[in-house]
User: What shape does this take?
Amino acid sequence: MNCDRIAAPYRWLEYLAFGRALERRRFRFLDDLRGAQRALILGDGDGRFLARLAAASQSSIDYVDSSGRMLELARRRAQTSRIAYHHADALTLPLAPSEYDLIVTHFFLDCLNERDLEHLIERVARTARPGALWIVSEFRQPRWATPLLAALYLFFRITAGLATRRLTDHRPLLAKRGFQLKCEEAAHLGLLASELWVRRD
Assistant: This one.
């Protein structure tokens, strides 16, 4: 998936569709992250969360996105030397073991099919230090939202080449890799959720 074609208007398309609801999910646990030292952020798009985290903490951040244009928007928004930008596929980017005490995936896991999602969580979990936090903002699929989610997947398939067509539940995969759900909050009639996970070991 590559969002270059929609990078410039993406923020406004998001606001048109959901108002500030997705932003509220991204920022929900920001106050819990001020002590982070090393962070890995996968697919935050235009960098709104990145800028907030950089301003709220002294963490050193690896920021990964497959869209060069999104990466450039994030760079302009954050404006700090503590961030290393990686124009790369998160499924193949080399990652050091036991490197991070914070992992962030905002509306990213829903872009992966079941096989790729399991592979990503397995390899990213290896980068987590004991006690590391993993922040997830994600869509969920209440029955009423099935047509809406189908339309969203179609939109991103046309504009960004998204291959997957449905949500895969990431929660059992995180639990399998040693993470425990510490806190969660649903919104937008169950369509959206923010989750705070902690590595048990």
Remarks:
- The chain has one domain: 4-199.
- The domain at 4-199 is CATH 3.40.50.150 (Rossmann fold).
